[in-house]
Amino acid sequence: MKNKIYTLISEYFQIGAGIVLASIGLKAFLLPNGFLDGGVTGIAILLNAQFGINISILLVILSIPFLVLGYFTVSRRIVIKSIISIIGLAIFIQLENFQTITDDKLLISIFGGLFVGMGIGITVRNGSVLDGSEILGVFLNDRLGISIGKVILVFNVILFSITALLFSVEIALYSILTFIVTAKVTDFMIEGFEDFIGLTIVSKNQEEVQKQILQKLGAGMTIYKGEGGYVHNGQKNELKIIHTVINRIDLRKIHQVIDEIDPDAFIMEFDINNIKGGVLRRYLQKKKNKKLPPNLVQQIENSQ
């Protein structure tokens, strides 16, 4: 029970931090200079610039249809968190009063997108959204099979095209830059800055490959028992399959290690978004040697 309460408090504290960061990006950079971000926030900024309607009110009103969609496409818990987050963002935007930090349009686009992206990323990691366009993407993906990325892309292409017509092509281009920065920073905040790669390795010299990976990279691994599915003589061969996860910076090194032992080894790579537990945590600690301790290496070798 205490763990649940602690987790809930931690989630809402981080959501609060995300709201503050996003509101700084909007009030200190984008809004004073008429720059747009993507999604519902961009529509609110556009309407505010055209008709002078309070942007906090616009954010809440424009988000209502998307939250209704979210009620049918995502969990009720996420919708409740999103309602709290959007109202919180609207309140902070209304209360904050920043001085214009810079008049440099490039800096405005980059740092505005940076702060908004950090805010969105933190809130999404904690089960909430600050922009309803993601919910629209989930809805259309569920009903029509259209990818979420394509929905958001089309949504923002229309938005920035309208911006170019109503204001100027220059403002639209800077707004696109803001959106790109926001999207990339959001991805970093959600997926983390570590870039993991998973590898599945099948080699006739599996034991030597395993030993060298342990000694030269210090990466933990899991060994699966398998069976060859394609043979010339009709007899199926038993084999062992290495499954490991490394940082992308070590990808070339592990290829060199494997090529020295077995140039014909089968290697399959795939992206990893998140890792929890296991030997990998020791491998990625910056303050310690990447190589595993000798007793652990010996223990793994003896278990073969």
Descriptive notes:
The protein contains twelve helices and four strands. It has helices spanning 2-33, 39-51, 55-73, 76-95, 105-125, 133-144, 148-166, 169-191, 206-216, 251-261, 280-284, 294-302, and strands at residues 196-202, 221-227, 238-247, 266-272. The model is unreliable at 281-290 (pLDDT under 50). The radius of gyration is 25 Å and the shape is elongated. It starts with a helix and ends with a helix. It is an alpha+beta fold and 304 residues long. It has two domains: 2-191, no CATH class; 196-302, Alpha-Beta Plaits (2-Layer Sandwich). Strands 2-3-1-4 form a four-stranded antiparallel sheet.
Classification by helices and strands = alpha+beta
Number of strands: 4
Radius of gyration: 25 Å
Helix content: 55-70%
Q: End-to-end span in angstroms?
A: 41 Å
Unreliable stretches, pLDDT < 50, 5 or more residues? Answer: 281-290
Number of helices: 12
**Which word captures the global form?**
elongated
User: Order of strands side by side in the largest beta sheet?
Assistant: 2-3-1-4
Mean pLDDT score: 81
What is the number of independent domains?
2
Order of helices and strands: HHHHHHHHEHEEHEHH
Our estimate of the beta-strand percent is 5-15%
Give the biggest beta sheet.
4 strands, antiparallel
